[in-house]
Design brief:
Blueprint: H1 17-23, E1 30-31, H2 33-40, H3 44-52, E2 59-61, E3 64-68, H4 69-83, H5 88-98, H6 105-153
Antiparallel strand pairs: 1-3, 2-3
């Protein structure tokens, strides 16, 4: 069910895809679940999960799910949100702000600015902690390597005491 496309060829992988999803004009108006899964690099199961959670609402033709451009754009935003670490509740709030016909677009964009700023701050803090941890681990490695080198230069009888 996963496709053979390289990650860089998927519609959700470049940074601008988050915004492109709103204005992108797909070459077709309807998509099957397999089409979306292949194009977006996800699974049928994940798409059905988002449907079960109320984030997607495909039309049904018999027992077949039929997704329109709106659902495709929503799925792109869901996948991007998950990749950025957003909870399903945050994603739902963001999608709901848009409204049925885009009437909440200003609120939606304001929310993106707010949450993006918070997320950047959180990532910067994590980055500082990671840098500190890397410095400590490198120090431990270097001290240990020096000790190992010293031990390798000593006589075997000298190593025990």
């Amino acid at each position: 069910m996963d496709d053979a496309k390289t990650p860089s060829s998927r519609a959700t992988d470049h940074p601008g895809s988050f915004l492109d999803a709103h204005r992108q004009r797909a070459t077709q108006d309807v998509f099957g679940i397999a089409d979306l899964a292949t194009e977006l690099g996800t699974t049928h199961r994940a798409i059905r999960f988002y449907e079960d959670k109320g984030l997607l609402s495909p039309k049904r033709v018999g027992t077949t799910r039929v997704y329109g451009r709106r659902e495709r754009a929503r799925l792109i935003l869901i996948l991007r949100g998950k990749r950025l670490g957003m909870s399903l509740d945050d994603i739902r709030e963001y999608l709901d702000l848009y409204g049925e016909h885009g009437e909440g677009r200003v609120k939606q964009l304001a929310r993106v600015v707010e949450r993006s700023s918070q997320f950047i701050d959180e990532l910067e803090e994590r980055k500082q902690h990671l840098e500190q941890t890397l410095t400590e681990v490198r120090f431990i490695r270097d001290v240990s390597q020096k000790k190992l080198d010293q031990l390798a230069r000593t006589k075997p009888t000298d190593r025990t005491g």
